[in-house]
């Protein structure tokens, strides 16, 4: 898990602007709170780079995605932004019952705000991510966590991908069959 945090032991610093302005410090505080509540796992193959467990307590990042990239001679750690995105998305799905595409769009805006607040080019960050989305999306799924939340894939009607993920789980009772039983 990323160990970089804005104030692990220091008292809160008063901002010189109203608290409701978007600021790097406020985003860092929010992200620190999220990081204390979730566990990160980079041990699995995760379609679309990242996902979350059904209970939302574990954020999964694909094991093939590098933990950082270089932008303007600076090493940028990417886990914190993906953790933010996945946590926001999962919260919006579960708490407000939003459709995946709506939750994803809002989570992407939060991710972008955090990237920009750290003075990282969103364009460079997104370019880095997109090159791995394509290569990971094309690979054979070998190891998928059993508790990976399939809601985003169901909402996208990506049945072929879901079938490949179910096979990779090695579970004798596919999730599709389990979810059909729940609906009955």
Account of the 3D structure:
The protein is mainly alpha-helical. The protein has one domain (about 25-184). The protein is about 50% helix and about 10% strand. The chain has helices spanning about 25-35, 80-95, 100-115, 120-140, 150-155, 160-170, 175-184, and strands at about 40, 50, 60, 70, 75. The protein has a 3-stranded mixed beta sheet. It has a two-stranded antiparallel sheet with strand order 4-5. α1 (about 25-35) packs across α3 and α2 (about 80-95) runs antiparallel to α3. The longest helix is centred in the middle third of the chain and has 18 residues, at about 80-95. It is globular. The model is unreliable at about 170-184 (pLDDT under 50).
What's this model, at a glance?
The protein has 184 residues and is mainly alpha-helical. The chain has helices at 24-37, 79-96, 100-117, 122-138, 151-155, 159-169, 175-183; strands at 39-41, 50-52, 58-61, 68-71, 74-77.
